[in-house]
Design brief:
The protein has a single domain, classed as NAD(P)-binding Rossmann-like Domain (Rossmann fold, 3-Layer(aba) Sandwich). The longest helix is centred in the middle third of the chain and has 19 residues. The chain is an alpha/beta fold. It is globular, with a radius of gyration of 20 Å. The strands form four sheets. A seven-stranded parallel beta sheet has the order 5-4-3-6-11-12-13, sandwiched between helices. Strands 1-2 form a two-stranded antiparallel sheet. It has a two-stranded antiparallel sheet with strand order 7-8. Strand 7 and strand 8 form a beta hairpin. Helix content is 41%, strand content 16%.
Length: 394
């Protein structure tokens, strides 16, 4: 078949296998060019390993530190008539590259929130890698079933206390118009915390510890985004913010539980990037389009791979990690540079439909969005017949 992007609102419902593979190769080449991460990890578990920051973390560990990796993801395989999800193709490409480099890798495709998946990972670690010294928690899912009760919770992206109105960019029509998001109920806040908070992270670490699968000095990190004034109403003082507060709570509790192993647990605050999740959040496409323009002009723009590489070298495996007042690792300092944010705020007030492509880098935002699914990648012939089938057993 000839595979062209099928975009429905803020999601692309198909993916290109060769394009996804090229994205993975590009990230691997970047990591290799940076050299070895001094004191980096040896055995790594990545929860949410197939896209975005999780995929970049796996690549940084494997190709920057020579680490063995076990990944967990929840991806759709291909059929004769339909492509796989982008994460499936990404993972297949990672396996091919890692195995060619002589690096151990294994992937479990399943629901990371479930007890069954935790049991599968434990069995796999006992049979293969053994004790892990880094656990990356990078799950992004709209719903979670509590393994103890069987109840399913769904997260919402809503402000707390009062409605929030702001400019919003319709990425299909290029129209800019106010959008109002009504405040969340108490039940919606609690459900969002259940899905996006730290409870599942705690369950993973407890399960691994109970089975003796945590190495002396092990580290674990979970990813978050905070942003600044423009995004605060939808991130900070919002349902996501409450979930992230719970992530901070979990980090402290996990760190205490790892004290006997001389281990550590941290939340890492990363910059805004184009992901499947961020594309769905009101305000973010327009904010990202402006942010990209400003940071590219200043030479400070970064994608997932650049962010994670700096997280490893400047924070996780640094003798002087960059920490904030509550102990989070910070790699978002370039986005939050006052000069960057001041310029973003000025452009935010000025932008409208007539000057969208002049005052923002919407073209760059859209290109990065399509690239998530393997489209618009240099060197790929998108007019060629391509089989969606990529054979890999994971």
């Amino acid at each position: 078949m000839i595979i062209k992007p099928k975009v429905r609102g803020f999601i692309c419902i198909n993916a290109h296998p060769q394009g996804c593979a090229a994205n993975v190769h590009e990230q691997i080449a970047y990591v290799k060019a940076q050299g070895t991460v001094a004191g980096g990890p040896r055995n790594v578990l990545v929860l949410g390993c197939s896209t975005g920051y999780g995929l970049s973390s796996r690549i940084a560990a494997a190709f920057g530190s020579g680490a063995s990796t076990l990944g967990v993801c929840f991806e759709k395989p291909p059929t004769d008539a339909k492509t796989a999800s982008a994460g499936y193709y990404n993972t297949a490409a990672f396996h091919e590259e890692a195995e060619a480099a002589g690096l151990f890798c294994q992937t479990i495709n399943g629901d990371a929130f479930s007890s069954q998946c935790k049991e599968q990972v434990i069995e796999a670690l006992k049979a293969g890698m053994g004790k892990v010294d880094l656990i990356v928690y990078s799950l992004a899912a709209p719903r979670r079933t509590d393994p103890a009760t069987g109840e399913t919770y769904s997260s919402v992206l809503k402000p707390i206390g009062q409605a929030y109105t702001a400019k919003n960019l319709n990425t299909d029509t290029h129209k800019i118009a106010p959008v109002t998001v009504e405040p969340a109920s108490a039940e919606e806040i609690a459900a969002t915390v259940k899905v996006m908070g730290g409870e599942d992270w705690e369950l993973w670490i407890a399960a691994l510890k109970q089975e003796g699968l945590l190495a002396e000095g092990c580290k674990t990190v979970a990813y978050t985004y905070l942003g600044d004034k423009l995004t605060w109403p939808i991130y900070g003082h919002a349902t996501i913010g409450k979930a992230k507060e719970d992530l901070d709570r979990a980090a402290a509790a996990i760190a205490q539980s790892l004290a006997g192993l001389k281990g550590d647990a941290r939340v890492a605050v990363l910059k805004a990037v184009v992901t499947q999740a961020s594309s769905a959040i009101p305000v973010m496409p327009l904010y990202l389009s402006i942010l990209f323009k400003v940071m590219k002009e200043q030479g400070s723009h970064e994608g997932c791979m650049e962010q994670i590489q700096r997280l490893f070298t400047e924070c996780l495996y640094s003798s002087a990690p960059r920490l904030d007042a509550v102990g989070r690792l910070r790699v978002d300092e370039r986005e939050l540079d006052p000069a960057v944010q001041q310029r973003v705020e000025v452009l935010w007030e000025q932008v409208d439909e007539s000057n969208l492509f002049e005052l923002t880098d919407f073209a760059g935002y859209n290109a990065e969005f399509l690239k998530l699914f393997g489209f618009g990648v240099s060197g790929i012939n998108y007019d060629a017949e391509t089989s969606p089938l990529v054979e890999y057993d994971f």
